[in-house]
Amino acid sequence: MTSNDTSVSRRNLLKAAGGAAASASVAGYVDTGSAEDVQQQGGGTLTYARGNDSGTLDPQNTTSGEDVKVTNQIYDRLIEFKPGESSLVAGLATEWNLEGQQATVTMREGATFHDGSECTVDDFIATYRRFTDSNYEYYPGDEYVSSYGPFTLGNWVSGIEKNGDYQMTIQLEQRYAPFLRNLAMFASSVLSEQAIQERGTDLSRNPMGTGPFQFENWDTGNQRIRLSAYGDYWGEGPNVDEVVFTAIGSNTTRAQTLVSGGANVIDGLGSQAAQIVDNSRNAQLLEKQGINIGYLAFNMARVEAFREKQVRQAISYAINTKAIVDTIFRGIAVQASQPIPSNVLGYNEELDPYPYDPERAQQMLDDAGYGDGFTFELATFQNPRAYNPSPIQAAQTVKSNLEQVGITVNINQQPFNPFLNYTSTGKHDACFLGWMTDNADPDNFYYALLHPGIPQDQVPQGQDWVGWDTDGFNTLDVAAWANTEFMNVTEEAQQTYNQQERADLYKQAAQIAHEEAPWVFMDHAKELRGVGNNVENFVVAPIGGPFLKQVRLTG
């Protein structure tokens, strides 16, 4: 059973003495390469244009993919994802294994932070405590740390035993299959203990990591962040002198900027912008199957009608998701039937998307006592996201569809960063949202987005939702859904190391989610990038990227 309880044993977790490392493990890795990689630094300024500016540069202060694009250049993790793939490779750790409730990690010697200090086990311990331990002297506060803290590390780690400067044993609260992948997530980026102590929350504007690029400045007025190559980076690269992240809100304007040479790489492409890039002689369109989900979530804690399963199902029938995918997203996405896409373990091929059937929807609303309709607010972000490249147009389609069954929708559109704060505090009736996986594990969808993060006995008997003021509530569960059958299945899957058994459990979870409909499952989108002809070695990375340290500029 999972818990967000920050117990005394968890808070007083640090042990100075060494202990025996784990023996043969079910999941292990040894890096056979040298920690002293040859530097291959090149030159030039790489400009990366996106749809929205960052809100923070502290990986423990965000749930936004826009922030992560930048922080992934500044920080490293113990374990990394191979560029463009979901397999694990060495980062700040060179060896690791997982057996039962224990993970052992050997860290890389000689990796330095941007101030020249060496990265050791002490830095990871300080990183962990700052993110999860409210009794830690340098804990920045519940309002500051993101909701990633509990489900990435806090719920699972009971203690860390330091076995010298470069070795540690991490004791888990339970068997937890995704743990090594969690160590590769952006939220597990390793911070400097000294920076934690000296900079505090200033890390949101003045970050310092061990990554290939170091922070230079942030022009918030022009929405531009400048990074420079870190000459003492432990790994290969970087191959450019600078990286500049700039925000261009319009998809088509961003594409035109790439074509005209004002940017080297762009993302957040809708169908029209993708066509502009594809038809250009100066750039190319790259694509890869994404690992994401776009959805409309019902806030059951706020809207009484949404507590009725028939109402949620009726809205799923009333919204023409096929038309949204085919007409608005036009070839860059497929309809969704469940929380995970087909390239994730446990995808249930027997489930079909809800078909567009307004007559059936009306009958279900009648049967549920809502035949005369009701009104709700649909909150949406304005800026394009990979899983929803045209959010305003999609929202207008939802509004039009639901008018046909007597439901009035008031669209509340906001810039992305204020929107995330709005939804993470439960102020929405319903909202568009989406998820680009952090670790390619089904748990990263099912538990992160649809589990309330509390023990099952805290769910009031006879209901399948909880209030936003529930102690330990997972605010990424923007539907406030708390179905105990679903919780039981996903908790069991977390503790199962056999892949086939896990897959079967997640297929059950998909069936429950499809039937209970806490979301309108909308789409799984391709990952699209526009890349200038002078760019080499850029890979589309649905997870862990962008990997800009390996990019070169020619000409």
TrEMBL record:
Residues 88-453 form the Solute-binding protein family domain. Belongs to the bacterial solute-binding protein 5 family. This is ABC transporter substrate-binding protein. Gene3D superfamilies: Dipeptide-binding Protein, Domain 1, Dipeptide-binding Protein, Domain 3, Periplasmic binding protein-like II. Pfam families: SBP_bac_5 (PF00496). The keyword Hydrolase does not apply. PROSITE patterns: TAT. Residues 53-68 have a biased composition (Polar residues). Keywords: Signal, Transport. The lineage of its organism: Archaea, Methanobacteriati, Methanobacteriota, Stenosarchaea group, Halobacteria. It comes from Halorussus caseinilyticus. It comes from the Archaea. Residues 35-68 are annotated as: Disordered. GO terms for cellular component: periplasmic space.
